[in-house]
Amino acid sequence: MQPTQDILSEELKQTARFAKALSHPIRLAILELLNSQACCFHGDMAEILPVAKSTLSQHLKELKNAGLIQGNISSPTIKYCINRENFEQAKQLLSSALK
Amino acid sequence: MQPTQDILSEELKQTARFAKALSHPIRLAILELLNSQACCFHGDMAEILPVAKSTLSQHLKELKNAGLIQGNISSPTIKYCINRENFEQAKQLLSSALK
DNA sequence: ATCTTCAATCGTATTTTTACGAATTGCGAA
DNA sequence: TTCGCAATTCGTAAAAATACGATTGAAGAT
Prior knowledge:
Two copies of one chain form a homodimer.
Chain A: H1 10-21, H2 25-35, H3 42-48, H4 53-66, E1 69-74, E2 77-82, H5 84-97
Antiparallel strand pairs in A: 1-2
Helix pairs in contact in A: 1-5
Chain A binds a DNA duplex (30 and 30 nucleotides) through α3 and α4.
């Protein structure tokens, strides 16, 4: 029994985490919206995307947990933005996985 | 009620499908192995990767369903290879999603 | 202090994913 | 034909993802 052979390296796991965050059409649509600056607010997205607001919140949460976006309070709404640093890392890791 | 607004375009859905295929460390490790030519056979992978053979088969099946790999019979074993065409498409779609 | 509004969280149900060992299949060798 | 090996499929269980409406929470406006 080997001590956690790192065939499953931390890098691989991180790549998988990012991929999982990207694995739902709604989440990709969110990123597209944020990326194009077309929209930054939960409420606006809720009008465009075909899901309930609570479901949208869940997807936003997952993107936040993955580090791909962040929310800044701008009362009474919340402005969501891409987290460029992690976004770049995701891009780099995934493109390296698909080399 | 709008007729399936294509905020969720076919392209987005395809991107999500590829991302889902990449969203598990084992599957990424499989692709890494195939990509590096280090190994092509189910049996060889089963020795390296920390999962049961039946579980490995399931992951291989998902990668096949996503179109990222293909298996060629080479009795008594099966030789797995990257499907370069779809692999390229995945790369292109994901990199475009992360632009 | 109360009301409104926006967003997150809760509670819940359903579906999908992940995992394993057992059983099956397919194919060549004996 | 029978045996053996490789890989898949089956049966099953446990965990995670997805979705919704209802409830809660936080903050500014009245």
